[in-house]
Design goal:
26 helices; about 75% helix; transmembrane
Amino acid sequence: MSTEQGSSSNYRRSLGTVALTAVGLGSIIGSGWLFGAERAAALAGPAAIFSWVIGAVVALTIALTYTELGSMFPKAGGMVRYGQYSHGSLAGYLAAWANWIAIVSVIPGEATASIQYVSSWDFGWAQGLYDGKELTGTGVAASSVLLVFYFFLNWFAISLFAKTNTAITVFKVVVPALTAGALLLAHLDTDNLTAHGGFTPNGWSAVFSAVAVSGIVWAFNGFQSPLNMAGEARDPGKSLPKAVIGSILIALVIYLALQAAFLLAVPAADLSQTGGWSGLSFNSPLADLSLAWGLNWLALLLYADAFVSPSGTGMIYAATTSRMIHGVQENGHLPGVFGRVDPRTGVPRPALLLNLVVAFVFLAVFRGWGSIAEIVGVATVISYVTGPVAVMSLRRLAPELPRPVRLRAMPVIAPTAMVFGSLVMYWARWPLTGKVIFIMAIGLPIWAWYELRKPWAELKPHLKAGAWMVTYLLVMAFVSWAGGEEFGGRGYLAPGWDILVVALLGLGFYGWGVRSAWPNPSLAGVTAEMAVAVADAREGKSNLEQMAG
């Protein structure tokens, strides 16, 4: 038995469709619903409603490509493996690095969200946790305690995680729904939709930018959590697609209700005093509105949920990121210790500890929910683009592999998903796109340490197959810099034409990426592993039939 097989066998296949849907929904409904409505409204005004719909369409389109991949390879840390299987080490590592950065930074973001809400409490010590822009030293210390709590719950067993998370997710769905309903009943000012700059006070470009930087991508990014837990799914072929698609659609309904409630409940006087939607600044948006309309009970519930919702998501991401680190190690880009899974509990404890350390670093550097949300949004989109390319590449390279989920429309869905991902990256605005692409480059020395020692003949095909992704990131950074002024660029591309250019670039790099895939050693290894698993299953079935006979 290989090391990979041995470590993976320590995982417990105990999660069904309901538990996996709870994982996805619990990841999606974290701190995004506490702050996303305000930040989206500040950017896009009442048209923020459309930002949530666009974000859901983008997430669902991309998620469909990953459900096929997740059902093909039901392995822990699935999202960091697919690019490696289709294109080898360079593209696979860049995709894994982007995905890990996007997910691991969510964990301190959730802790930050909880403490930021606490800062609205009417106590001197609470108000000293947040200075209006970022956490204070005391706030960082309090957030650190929450980080330890998230990881503590994951330390002992996957069964404890599943039971705790399902209960928390029920609470996390009920409270946002109750919040939206209560605010709509308390105050419903339809003039807010047309006054103060109109329905689109900052233009449609702001509606698109809100998708990338207001926490919407952050929110829907949770769809990948069931995929990263695929190694613990009982029937991944059926449960994974149901969990992924179901969690996105349920969350969209909740987010639309919350956005509508926020838009209609903001006092007109506040909008007048701040000069419109862009001037709004709440430490605890929904709780502050609840207090403004005398819903003290709701404010207290929101303050409590400000711990429960982010903590539930932080706990989930602590679990999924540890599986991602395990996957990166099995890809050959981390020391062997991070591939160890405790045989008694089924938890990859060394990976869990590494992520805790990295979460502390992010917490120290990015102390505000908004700044972390921006980084997460762009890094997430970068990690997304490998899914559409990988799914069609593997259909070409390995058509014989079992695909429990196989959509006939995938040849259309995959390039569409690539275009959507490219557009969201562009909408994030320069210089943010450039900054996050630079963060992607920071991870390359780790790849170089493991790969550049290999003989040139062995390394060359990995470089050739990964060239499309490196070039894609550089070109997207350039287009973002040169693009429309409404998206932070220099204005060399006229409005409308810039969108067309980005869409065509997405299609062009999609074609390059699919053509550059090759039957690399990682694909050969997982194919052999799957063949052994199928043979073992057939042998076990035959033995049972003989015993029954």
